[in-house]
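testing teh design pipeline on a random one, pls ignore if ur not involved
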């Protein structure tokens, strides 16, 4: 009986020791969780601090952009004058091209007119075209030859 009691006591001590170890492990896990939460909070605060610093830098950049320095204003004025000069040059080039095209078209029209005049002289007249004013053409008397042919047909 004494041996059985001693065995139960040893088992109880072993169970108590196991429970103590489990409690220690649980306490260690809880401490690790608290440390992890603290680290996460520290990381969040650091991220907020970085974001705040970035916003302040952006604000400073915007403020400096709103009030540009003298050098930036000078560079912008030079760039604008260069762009204006380039635009004026391109406008002159476009105008010169338009004039050249107009001259070429006039030359073509003159040569075509000369060719048409030569054809008209060769064949004794030009191509008979429809009148540009239909009302005036209707008011004009019809050619007599056509009227005679119609009367002969009917």
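output:
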């Amino acid at each position: 009986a004494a041996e059985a009691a001693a065995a139960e006591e040893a088992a109880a001590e072993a169970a108590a020791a196991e429970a103590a170890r489990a409690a220690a492990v649980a306490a260690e896990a809880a401490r690790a969780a608290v440390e992890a939460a603290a680290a996460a909070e520290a990381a969040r605060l650091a991220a907020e601090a970085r974001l705040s610093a970035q916003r302040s830098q952006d604000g400073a950049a915007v403020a400096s952009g709103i009030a540009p320095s003298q050098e930036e204003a000078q560079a912008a004025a030079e760039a604008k004058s260069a762009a204006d000069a380039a635009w004026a040059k391109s406008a002159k080039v476009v105008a010169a091209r338009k004039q050249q095209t107009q001259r070429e078209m006039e030359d073509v029209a003159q040569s075509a007119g000369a060719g048409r005049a030569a054809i008209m002289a060769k064949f004794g007249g030009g191509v008979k075209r429809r009148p540009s004013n239909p009302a005036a053409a209707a008011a004009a008397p019809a050619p007599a030859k056509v009227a005679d042919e119609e009367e002969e047909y009917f």
